[in-house]
Design a protein that fits this description.
This protein has 251 residues and is mainly beta. It contains five helices and 15 strands. The longest helix has 17 residues.
């Protein structure tokens, strides 16, 4: 005898039988985490993503170095993750939201948290001193949105006006990763691909001498697409160290 289900019944079966695998895509993963020290407990300006001082203070210093599988050759830079340690006596249910600013891993660890971020996992600040001696702790984690707003582009300090242009995307912390960037030469009407130099840094030798728009290729899951700026992002007379806001939001 054939059995049929209405929509409600099908939904309930999904919840009861398939919840861990199919009903929701934003699942938790298991790993381990450790920490590193700096003079102020926050991040480091020398992270592999190339953020400089931004990588030290972004998200109030609650940052992390990530394993190669999460760093993704730099495409994972700027991504946010919620991380919970699993010691019920010491660890809070809220965990800590961290931003990837560096690449690094130890045996079985996907996260090397800043000192402040590691302490934030404790139920109470007074319990953090009991968490640190463990060195490495079991954690659950998942990708979350950073909820920044419009993407910003910083001109890297090593740029040389009209001879060499290097840019760093800031505030890209949605669920998608930045895979490629191209700039639009408004004089020649051509899109010019940039090279991923390292981490989150994209560069181009002999950039066009004009205002420039950009487009960004993003990847979420297995899907990729291009997002275009409708306005000029990088002005003709750009300066190293300048930050320009785009009209692009990373989903």
């Amino acid at each position: 005898m054939a059995i049929s289900f209405n929509n409600c019944s099908t939904f309930m079966i999904c919840i009861i039988l398939l919840l861990p695998t199919f009903c929701f895509g934003n699942k938790n993963y298991y790993s381990k985490a450790t920490y590193y020290k700096t003079s102020d407990g926050k991040g480091t300006p020398n992270g592999a993503c190339g953020y400089g001082k931004h990588g030290k203070y972004v998200n109030d210093g609650l940052v992390t170095a990530a394993s190669w599988k999460l760093y993704k050759n730099g495409a994972g830079c700027g991504a946010c993750y919620k991380v919970w340690c699993k010691d019920e006596a010491l660890c809070s249910d809220e965990g800590v939201k961290v931003v990837i600013t560096d690449n690094g891993e130890g045996p079985g660890t996907d996260f090397i948290l800043s000192f402040d971020a590691f302490a934030k996992m404790a139920k109470h600040p007074k319990l953090a001193h009991m968490l640190f001696p463990k060195g490495v702790v079991d954690v659950d984690y998942k990708r979350v949105s950073c909820k920044y707003g419009n993407l910003k582009i910083k001109i890297n300090e090593h740029s040389n006006y009209h001879g060499y242009l290097a840019i760093i995307p800031f505030n890209n912390g949605g669920y998608a990763d930045i895979m490629a960037i191209e700039i639009y030469d408004v004089k020649s009407y051509k899109w010019i691909p940039m090279r991923r130099s390292y981490g989150a840094v994209f560069d181009l030798a002999n950039p066009p001498k004009c205002d420039m728009k950009i487009k960004i290729q993003i990847k979420e899951g297995e899907k990729t697409k291009w997002i275009y700026s409708d306005k000029v992002v990088i002005p003709d007379y750009w300066k190293p160290g300048s930050i320009y806001e785009t009209d692009i939001q990373i989903p």
